[in-house]
Amino acid sequence: MRRSGGGALVAGLAVLMLSGQAVRAESVTLMQAYTRMMTAGIETGIIDADLAASAEGVKQAKGQRLPRVQLSLQYDQIQQEVISSDNETYAEGSSQYPKVTFNFSVRQPIYDAVRFRALPLARAQDAVRQADAEVARNRIVRDMIVAYFEVAQAQMRIRRAQAIIDGRADYVRSVEEDVAAGRREADVLIRAQGDSFAAESDRMEAEIGLAEALAGLQRYAGLDVTGVALDGARLGVVDLANIDRSMTEAALLSMSPDLQSARAAADVGKRQIASARGALQPTVDLVLDFEHQTTEGSLFGGGSKTQTVTGGAMLTVPIYEGGIRKSRVREAEAGLRAADLKVQQTERAVLARYKALIGAARATAARSGKLSSQLRLSEESVAAAQEQFDAGRASEGVLLEQRLRRDTLRLDVQSARLQQFRVQAELYALFGALDMKAISAQAGS
């Protein structure tokens, strides 16, 4: 009663701390967690909104080449007073009258380096947004997969702790019988009971670890998720040879989403320099103006209506604006240098991460292989211990110890394979090649 009550209390408090309210318990597969995240994830909504804003920026840049059409209507109330005049007829006097001016103008740019280079710049900026969105999506999916496998490993630790508890309970019972029959000393029973209490403590610690791991997964899959539906016995095998063959450094340098984003940012830097230099060049516009003016009356005569049509070309040459234009060129050039250095920095970071993950993949594969070999030997030991026990040449305690070792090794093998899948998923994410269906099927969930 103390064991089950303590474990339930820890797990219950952890769930309450994570959710703040009662939630419906549910275990999810890897694909279900992914679907939940993509359906209701805030992160993906932010990415989509940012891409929509970027698309509008491209539309605005396209409009820079189109004519500017403007319509204006102006109403003026004019008061005139004669101060002095050579004409004796208008030597003195005053009048008030309204004037209405209607103007329609068209400006068509013929040459404007800043406007004409706005579209390539906007497209380059959109490419950066697209690359950044891919980096963000890749990161979100990777983090969700990692969180999923962390929960799976936490559940595996609980199962392992429970297997030890059950095995120790059987062992304590066997020792109690031996002590009662005088075949063992009491101190053996005390040590066995101490091991049982230690196993209880390990399970409670594992339950706390599960609650912490769930907090990471619930961020993506929802607060009602209380576990993962993963069958450790159905776990596939990570093909390390295929990883070594297909995931090379050369492939990484061409496929890495982080590198593609950094390179796209460097291309924007080049476009910004071209745009800044364009501000130093003259502009040419075609101009067409139509003006209609109505005057109701004035001090010097009656009302009038006039129409004026003006057409021509306007050349504008920048002379001096306080050094602002040249300063913007230097600013853009400095930005490009920073972007080029960022490409080099990202390349180093990506390659370092690649080497670390490749090393981890080999290490986890080796560990999984050694544990599998130990499991085969342990199964043989259990069979031998069973024969000796049946023949009366070994105690039940020996058989129970061999069974416990076999059961824990089975879980250790599954946990090692989970670690392999986690490393593999992080490698796929580094290459921008995450395939949820393949990973989910391989992980047996």
UniProtKB/TrEMBL annotation:
The keyword Nucleotidyltransferase does not apply. It is found in: Cell outer membrane. Gene3D superfamilies: Outer membrane efflux proteins (OEP). It comes from the Bacteria. Pfam families: OEP (PF02321). GO terms for cellular component: cell outer membrane; efflux pump complex. The keyword Flavoprotein does not apply. One of its GO terms (molecular function) is efflux transmembrane transporter activity. Keywords: Cell outer membrane, Membrane, Transmembrane, Transmembrane beta strand, Transport. Belongs to the outer membrane factor (OMF) (TC 1.B.17) family. This is Outer membrane protein TolC. It comes from Cereibacter changlensis. The lineage of its organism: Bacteria, Pseudomonadati, Pseudomonadota, Alphaproteobacteria, Rhodobacterales.
